[in-house]
Amino acid sequence: FDAVDVIRVKRDGGTLSPEQIDWVIDAYTRGAVAEEQMAALNMAILLNGMDRGEIARWTAAMIASGERMDFSSLSRPTSDKHSTGGVGDKITLPLAPLVAVFGVAVPQLSGRGLGHTGGTLDKLESIPGWRAALTNDEMMAQLENVGAVICQAGSGLAPADRKLYALRDVTGTVEAIPLIASSIMSKKIAEGTGALVLDVKVGSGAFMKDEVAARELARTMVDLGTDAGVRTVALITNMSTPLGLTAGNALEVRESVEVLSGGGPQDVVDLTVALAVEMLAGAGRPTAEDEVRSALSDGRAMDVWRAMITAQGGDVDAVLPVAVEQEHVVAERDGILTGLDALDVGIAAWRLGAGRARKEDPVQAGAGVEIHVKPGERVVAGQPLLTLHTDTPERFARALESARSAVTIEDAAPAAPRDLVITR
Ligand code: URA
Question: Which of 20, 93, 99, 331 is deepest in the core (most CB within 10 A)?
Answer without folding.
Answer: 99
